[in-house]
């Protein structure tokens, strides 16, 4: 599983956003081509049948060479046909109004393993790139600068001050711009997978948190009693 995830990230088929994989335009195009040219393989029933036949191999009921032959001969024909019909697929880049600082061309949107970024279309002659800054509309609690979305080396989303490296503020949880009523530290959004976001104090020693929007209760103390 891990090598598969690493491959689809490196090839730009998906990006990570808040612990989830989000398909890129390239990824969606690839999936549609696979469904069109390999319908017998890109199918849930195929996977189930193959698993059953592999179980038979393990139990000695199926010869593994026969199994591979039955699969690969028609699959090789599908590959040859797809190579003839698909050809080279190019996705037109999204052109922006921002200008390359090196050569004056309009920058285009590219997809990398850490998400979208701006790049000069004159590559490889011009290698200028620039990150796409996504503001969350909240001021930095340390210096008052703009809080923007950033990504770690592993693609994990976090929040930092746009004035970095002058200001080193970072947070894994999204700051809200609100202050904790108990200790005046800033509040952040906190949500488990599949649940609505609640607010909690960024000061771990405080323990203040609110119930998710629309649920009963308003705030809890460190011991769990509602306030």
**Beta-strand share of residues:** 25-35%
The SSE string, one letter per element, is HEEHHHEEEEEEEEEEEEE
Can you list the strand order of the major beta sheet? 3-4-5-6
Count of extended strands = 15
Give the terminus-to-terminus CA distance: 45 Å
Write up this protein.
With about 230 residues, this protein is of the alpha+beta class. It has helices at about 1-10, 25-35, 45-60, 65-85; strands at about 15, 20-25, 95-100, 105-110, 115-120, 130, 135-140, 145-150, 155-160, 170, 175-180, 185-190, 200, 210, 220. The strands form five sheets. Strands 3-4-5-6 form a four-stranded antiparallel β-sheet, with no helix packed on it. It has a four-stranded antiparallel β-sheet with strand order 7-8-9-10, with no helix packed on it. Strand 14 and strand 15 form a beta hairpin. The longest helix is centred in the N-terminal third of the chain and has 23 residues, at about 65-85. It is flat, with a radius of gyration of 25 Å.
Give a brief outline of the structure.
The protein is an alpha+beta fold and 227 residues long. Helices cover 26% and strands 29% of the residues.
Keywords:
227 residues; 4-stranded antiparallel β-sheet; single chain; alpha+beta
Topology:
Layout: H1 2-10, E1 14-17, E2 20-23, H2 25-37, H3 44-58, H4 64-86, E3 94-99, E4 106-112, E5 115-119, E6 129-131, E7 134-139, E8 146-151, E9 157-161, E10 170-171, E11 175-179, E12 186-190, E13 198-201, E14 209-210, E15 219-220
């Amino acid at each position: 599983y891990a090598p598969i995830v690493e491959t689809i990230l490196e090839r730009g088929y998906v990006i990570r956003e808040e612990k989830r994989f989000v398909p890129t335009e390239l990824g969606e195009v690839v999936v549609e081509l696979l469904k069109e040219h390999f319908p017998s393989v890109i199918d849930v029933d195929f996977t189930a049948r193959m698993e059953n036949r592999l179980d038979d191999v393990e139990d000695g009921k199926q010869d593994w060479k026969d199994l591979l032959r039955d699969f690969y001969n028609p699959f090789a024909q599908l590959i040859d046909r797809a190579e003839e019909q698909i050809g080279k697929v190019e996705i037109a880049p999204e052109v922006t109004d921002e200008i390359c600082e090196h050569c004056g061309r309009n920058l285009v949107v590219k997809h990398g393993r850490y998400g979208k970024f701006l790049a000069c279309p004159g590559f490889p002659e011009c290698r200028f790139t620039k990150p796409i800054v996504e503001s969350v509309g909240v001021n930095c609690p340390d210096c008052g600068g703009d809080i923007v979305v950033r990504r770690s080396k592993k693609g994990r989303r976090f929040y930092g001050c746009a004035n970095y490296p002058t200001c080193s503020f970072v947070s894994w949880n999204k700051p809200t711009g609100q202050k904790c009523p108990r200790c005046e530290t800033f509040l952040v959004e906190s949500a488990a997978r599949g649940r609505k976001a609640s607010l909690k104090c960024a000061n771990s020693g405080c323990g203040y948190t609110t119930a998710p929007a629309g649920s009963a209760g308003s705030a809890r103390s460190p011991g769990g009693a509602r306030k």
